[in-house]
Design a protein that fits this description.
Blueprint (H helix, E strand, L loop, with lengths): L1 H17 L6 H6 L2 H52 L14 E16 L6 E16 L4 E9 L10 E2 L9 E10 L7 E7 L18 E8 L6 E13 L7 E15 L2 E13 L13 E2 L2 E2 L4 E14 L2 E12 L9 E10 L7 E10 L18 E13 L2 E12 L9 E11 L1
Helix pairs in contact: 1-3
Length: 429
Amino acid sequence: MNKISNIVAAGVFLLTTIVVAPPSAGAEESASSEEMMKMLKRLDKRVAEQDRRIAELKSALNQERSQKTRYEEIKSIIKEINAEAGGAPVGLPQWMENLKFYGDLRLRYQHDCFNTNAKNRNRGRFRLRLGIKKTWLDKQLEVGFRLASGSNDDPTSTNQTFDNNFSKKRIWIDRAYAKYSPKALKGLTLVGGKMANPFVHTDMIWDSDLNPEGVWGVYKYPCLGSFEPFAGAGYFQLMHNRDTHDGTMYGYQAGFNWKVVKDLKWTSAVTYYDFDHYEDNYTAADGNTELNGLLTAEEFHVFNLTNKVGFKALNLPMSVYVDYAHNCGNNLAGKSDALGVGYKIGTNKAKGDWSASYQYKYIEANATPGGFNDGSFGGSNRKGHVFGAKYNIADYLTVGASVYYTQPVSGDGTGNTTTTAIGDLIWKF
């Protein structure tokens, strides 16, 4: 249509150029024959130029029509082939419609330094994750899975260390889930399987690599404009135990997402985690105190209050968080609280983007299950600082560095510090 409009415009211009108002009688008398000849030559030149342009536009239009004709012919041939094949689609299989592949590869150098007689460590590591998800029913139903590397089945790490004499490395099932978000009840989401962590949280409670297993439902009320309250509940399985009780966890959360103004968003959530018989099914203490092979906390009924605020300042995106937790199931005095605060400036979405961050965490020995929180930080009964920075070399390629400086909160070795320096190269796809 744009080319047809150009042809019409050119024609109008040509007509307006040729059909001009006749000069006044005085002008006719004063104009010499030489001036008239010059005017006619200029007019002839302009007409020739317009003819050339119109010819080019006609040629382009004919070419476009020819391409459209060929396209329609190809469509007709494909339709005939489909009819002969009983309606089977030609080209990609139907099951590949609405199919998305995603993942990332991270190469890491890690140096661990101790202020004790322990030997310092230098490790090369990598993380490889590949996921696939597909949607049905106009994107109401999503089913997906993700595979990930890992030296073992530790739920808080997908790092694979370079070791064991060039041996082949393992791949684990990291996620396997189904998610349903019905349009008939906007705001409701139901998930089942091994899923991405559905809670509003920080790594003071849950490591970023951990994917819980069970069922979860959340409803976000969509009718209050920029203020969106939500409530969710879930049941998660920890361990099957034939000798005693199974380990399970019930999680309940309520809160809101509030876009206060254009560049200010506040998310707040109150969560209650009921770890039922975790003490009978834990695999490693990871900072939780033990006595005669048993956890002294007895129960983990964790109350958690999380606040996150995102805003812009100096034309840069920034965010802060404050996270507090208390274990209501610890019958012993003390060692039941955890506090985390963090600040981040910048973002990492496109080439040239950068970010810097800082966190401080103070996690007492029996505040949260040590086997689930930040593995790089060192589990529970740990306090310290985390510094980080990232830079986008390209849209999907990032370099980063981080430093952890931590020590125990209580017990033996409270003066023993661990400094971990990490360098990363991350490719996302």
